[in-house]
Protein 1
Amino acid sequence: MSKGEDSRKEIVASALAMASEVGLEGVTIGALAERTGRSKSGLFAHFGSKEELQIAILDEAVDRFVSLVVSPALKEKRGLPRVRALFERWLAWARADFMPGGCIFMAATVELDDRPGPTRDRLVSSEKDWLGVLSGAAKIAVDEGHFRPDLDCDQFAFELYAIAHGYHTLARLFRDRASEKRARAAFDRLLRDATISTETRPSARPSAKHH
């Protein structure tokens, strides 16, 4: 890696930490220059615009997420062990020391949900990829016989995504120490549902007895 590439990587790492605290919009060239002790002109040599910098931050976050969450989990045994590993590593992701303000994807979701443009497109792409990983892991669990054959794997991915986002929100906003315990309880219920066939599941409304 060249000196210029090393420099750029250091800058993006600082920008990622900063974005986790103040959001992507808070990471301006000027604020980042002050934080890193570099000149604005030096930063402009690496990033021609604020939008380019924001996309670089998301790219760095995605690379780290794949390295710390996805890749290690995919090395686990196929099926349920892999699904559990994805969940466990996702919870740990929010506590990573390089994101002192919490999950950057959560912060970016709030900022960019109604703001069209390349930065939002990059975030949407990464989140769709992640949902695809979760759905794919569930499909493999079905193939392995760990989950019921009639499982809606996209629905499973949606609910797992919602559990983790709820955990990240409550843990940061409420400082709720019980949030992780509740997330794990919700995850366990989701797994139980995924293993129970709809044909053998008890009816929600028992039929009336005839006299």
Protein 2
Amino acid sequence: MAEFRTIVNVESDFKISYSDRVLMLGSCFTDNIGQRLAQAKFPVTVNPYGVLFNPESIAATIENGLNNKIIEESDLLLNGDLWVNLDFHGSFSSTDKNEALAKMNLASQTLNKKLSEATILFLTFGTAYVYKYSQTNKIVANCHKLPGTSFQCFMLKPEEIADRYTRLIDKMLKLNPNLKIVFTVSPIRHLRDGLHRNQLSKATLLLAIEQIVSRFQQAHYFPSYEILLDDLRDYRFYDTDMVHPSSLAIDYIWQQLRNSCISPADNQLIDEITKIETAANHKPINPQSVEFQKFASAQIDNIKKIAQEHPNLDFSAEIKHFEQYVKN
């Protein structure tokens, strides 16, 4: 019988292991996959500056990290009663100027450290449209709800993006020659740009990435956009806003990443960790019962066995959780 869907067969030329140190930057889709990696206890850092959508803002953020940029008062803007920075997500804003600066500089220091340590860098592009702030003539990462008249919106060209990242990757590889860079395009649709403009934007990102990957042996592409748009291809796999992928779709893309990029041995470890996390999230009907105490004790023994085999993994929170149910 003929297939009733188009299956995207992912053949990856890069691998992820528990010995890797992963850094992820980009759109909120990065947060979703980064969360899956974190839950599986991979050493991963996700969006130290907050969510980033366009390639230029991601590139500028990386350069800030490479240069260990110090965020100063002159980099802040008072918007209402909040001190904001147009390079940072709104979660870094504060009514206290010093608090905002402290959070931003901590993020910048973290990014600098992770860029030098990372073995895999995931970059997820969301849109090719950018907003240039008229007062500084700089492309911003976040408009912070400033008046639209303060910005000029335009779309980057594939060649601009590719050339920008060619220079940037050269810099990164000088600092960190072992770095592998994985590009992906977020399947999240930017409907405020309009359906046609959104398609033009995604096509621009795909063309740019194709050029970048062809220039660097260390650069790779993972087809998260194609998996959702061409494989799943149904509103069942979107959240209630009909824009963002549903948790089911994210799980499917995560499984595709696991199947194509993670070894069978590490996948087995992920399954074991998932079982532990599921057990830890289980709410017992009677936590004082002998049966549940035996269950908790067995979980601790299992965790300690895995931890002994993988001493680089931190299970302290899970052990503490189950120990509260075990009577001495």
Protein 3
Amino acid sequence: MPAVKLTKNELKKQKDALKRFRRYLPTLVLKKQQLQMVIRQLEGRLAEETRKRKERIDGAAPWLELFVEAFPFQDWLKVKNVGTESANIAGVEIPVFKSMDFATASHDLFLTPPWVDEALSLFAGLARLDVEIGMLHRQISLLEAELRVTSQRVNLFEKVKIPQALASIREIQIFLGDQQTAAVVTGKTAKRNLLRREEAS
């Protein structure tokens, strides 16, 4: 801790700083709690979307062997647009998935196997889930980074700044109190000496 000046001005400065730290700390603690709560909610959604994706793949497993037939699926289903928007969570801008549009190639229903339409629907659903899962990972990553910074600030205020200000205030008050006591004693001694001299003359 750097040495503090033992003056009344420094005492006022330290008291103002302490007041400021105590005023900001509850806001930081609240922000930290809000970030933790939102991260838990997003982790729950991420687990749910991951489970849905697995269920879709597992549900399609019995007929996935049909995909050995040569069909150019990559040309039949293309992502046209991914709709996102921004949301503000505790001062952090995060991307939010809104929609996903596909361009589908027209194909002759008589010349393609009957499972092709179901496969295209499955791929579209999986692509949506993949984008949404990726977006949830991004949201969690951004919020966790902000949570780390906020936690560091809370710790700085609680464990460093406030205790330092309190220690400085105490040190200055003791020094100023000692000086005041010494001034009173010196004044009384001088007065007593003055009275003795007056009595002696």
